[in-house]
Amino acid sequence: MDWMNNFKIKMKGIKTRLKKVNIPKSPPMLTIIEKTFFDLIKPIKFVVSLLIMLIQPLILIMSPLMIGFGSVSTINVDFGSISVEHAASIITIVLAYPLFSWTFGIVFTSILGIFGAPLVAEEVDSGTILILVSKPINRYKIFLAKYIALFLYGILLSFSIIFLVGWIALIRYSGNISHFIGILPFLFSLFLYAILLTLIFTSITLAFSSIFKKSRNAALAVILIVVLSFLGFPYIKALLQVNYERFQIYHFDIGYHLGNVFVLFIEIFDAIPPVAAWQIYFAQNFGVFKYVAYVDPDQNINLGGLEKTNYYLPVISLLIWIIIALLLLFYGFISIKKREIYR
User: Fold this and answer.
1) Residue 234 in contact with residue 285, Cβ under 8 Å?
2) 28 and which of 11, 100, 137, 330 could share a cystine (Cβ 3.0–4.6 Å)?
3) Which residue has the higher pLDDT, 299 or 320?
């Protein structure tokens, strides 16, 4: 049994030496990012978010293919006998508008608002942030850590839903992997738009979370912006009709600017053919297109699709939203600095 006693003595010595070793800890900011991020991606919340985002695209994917301009008709397509480009065109035309208006319009932005609103407001109200500011990390870094965590959550959520929708559409229509490759430009352009949207609404959410004392009020403020953008202004546009342009409502129409940017990404990567089948929805609800076919002014030839309104150049709409996001981020920094957290 001597060998057993010797082994125990050696193990005790190793444990003693290990206790004396200073194992470096993660920097406080990284710790906050990690904790906040993993709180956001709890499995049940994440899966429920994906399912809600999937509702409208899934309904359209599982329904019979319908296409048309003015009158809608059901079509039968044999995906096994058409080219990859043709198949990709049909799939992207079906998915473009529901992904813009529902998945990334109403649901995704609302999720960022609901889950992001408590990140600052609730911790200030509960006094949890007192513990954080007592450590060697200032309020700016706390705010930035929360921002990065919510931004990463938005990127993960958007990537997951884009990948999921792409595969469901592939399985439903053809099962041919080459068709999935064919829609990659569309999925990539959608992901770039999602990154911009995440930047914008992360900034809006955390700015409101820094301003309002109650997280409920911050979440409601974000949801109000979402409803106004994707439901309110389309209703106003339908109500005013030609007066929408006459009174220049598009200056304040958040949905128009987002639609303008979305179409910009689609055009850059030539992700969807420029046809009226999908453009008509952006004309009706967001004013990105006119109800007029695009005609070459020199040869008087219909080039396909609808003519753009060009109230704003798409790049200008993009810059407007980037500037708004940066200003709100800066305002959030200032708000959390000035806000009294000692109760």
Assistant:
1) yes
2) 137
3) 320
Q: Which residues 6+ apart lie within 8 Å of 91 measured at CB?
A: 169, 170, 173, 179, 182, 183
- Close Cβ partners of 175 (under 8 Å, ≥ 6 residues apart): none
Provide the CA 127 distance to its chain's centre, in angstroms. 30
Angle at 282 between CA 270 and CA 82, to 5 degrees: 45
CB contact burial 161-176 (16+ within 10 A = b; e otherwise): bbebbbebbbeebbee
φ, ψ (nearest 5 deg) of residue 109:
-65, -35
Amino acid in the structure at residue 10: K
List the domain boundaries for the chain. 32-56+97-338
Q: What is the pTM of this model?
A: 0.85
How far apart are the C-alpha atoms of 208 and 147, rounded to whole Å? 12
Confidence of residue 124 (pLDDT cuts 50, 70, 90): low
Q: Which of 70-84, 91-105, 148-162 has the lowest mean pLDDT?
A: 70-84
Q: Report the half-sphere exposure of 195 (CA within 13 A, side-chain side).
A: 6
pLDDT > 70: percent of the chain: 79
